[in-house]
């Protein structure tokens, strides 16, 4: 029976969907706006993101995934179903086969939750693949050769670091330090330093327009508005790149340490390959200014940011869908 195969990058910050033969057909924030009175979902995706921090009391815009895993099962299911209906892949006769990416060290309970949510949203067979592996494929790395490839995938909730060879993960680490943590640190810094409260969206603007993690790597400034904690009134301040670099030092150092520990656990032959080939960075966090320079300096290997890092995982699911029958057979054995 003809059925559509689809790949889903179920991210903490964004959901991307790849349909076989059509490419990436959806890229929307992982946000759902809920009416707390009725428990009904009012908006999903981009429409719901517009509501973050701007809703009356009875409407809450929530993100059902936290740190790369499902924090709220029912809302995740509502979100997935909405997106699948939107791209119109289900027919009356057949349900799609779905390939979903997960962080490397999630528990079997968390895996089961992701599978169940996808099944309830209308999937026929659900396959799970580890995110750094899929990201590496999507970034154009040939991971099926007997040589070492290293990928650092920085998402919204987790950073997945892995060394791959022969189509599989050799060493890996997944830490809960990623894009959201950067936003939080910026928020916290502005609050402590300037006694000013800002929202998530403002923190994200600072991250994109001003932030750098490489000392002296950037010299931008930005006027931002928020609420003064003392007077309670709106106030404008100017933030500069070098102070944001200081604010982001802690999460960045954790990420560098995780990458170093993955390299330390890698067999020497594969380490030698990584010196030749370098490290590829994927995910939205790879767009953070100076992060490639900093990693290159700390790991002492070349570091490259993938083309379109935010869609590497979705593209990778697309390439893996080409071999989905093989994957299906493997899972049945």
Strands, helices and their partners?
Elements: E1 5-10, E2 14-19, E3 23-29, E4 32-35, E5 40-44, H1 46-49, E6 59-62, E7 65-66, E8 69-70, H2 73-87, E9 97-102, H3 108-120, E10 126-130, H4 131-138, E11 149-154, E12 159-165, E13 168-175, H5 179-194, E14 196-197, H6 200-209, E15 221-228, E16 234-240, H7 241-247, H8 249-264, H9 268-277, E17 279-282, H10 291-299, E18 303-305, H11 312-321, H12 324-332
Parallel strand pairs: 1-9, 9-10, 11-17, 17-18
Antiparallel strand pairs: 1-2, 2-3, 4-5, 4-6, 7-8, 11-12, 12-13, 14-15, 15-16
Helix pairs in contact: 2-3, 4-11, 5-6, 8-10
Strand content: 25-35%
Order of helices and strands: EEEEEHEEEHEHEHEEEHEHEEHHHEHEHH
Instruction: State the helicity in percent bands.
Output: 25-40%
CATH architecture of the largest domain: 2-Layer Sandwich
Strands across the major sheet, in which order? 3-2-1-9-10
Helix/strand class = alpha+beta
What is the terminal separation in angstroms? 22 Å
Q: If helices are DSSP runs of H or I spanning 4 or more residues, what is the number of helices?
A: 12
**Oligomeric state of the chains?**
single chain
Number of strands: 18
CATH fold naming of the largest domain: Nucleotidyltransferase, domain 5
Q: Which word captures the global form?
A: flat
The CATH homologous superfamily name of the largest domain equals: ATPase, nucleotide binding domain
CATH class of the largest domain: Alpha Beta
Mean pLDDT across the residues is: 91
- Output the radius of gyration: 21 Å
Binding site for ATP: 12-14, 156-158, 204-207, 284-287
Protein name: Cell shape-determining protein MreB
GO molecular function, one term: ATP binding
Family: Belongs to the FtsA/MreB family.
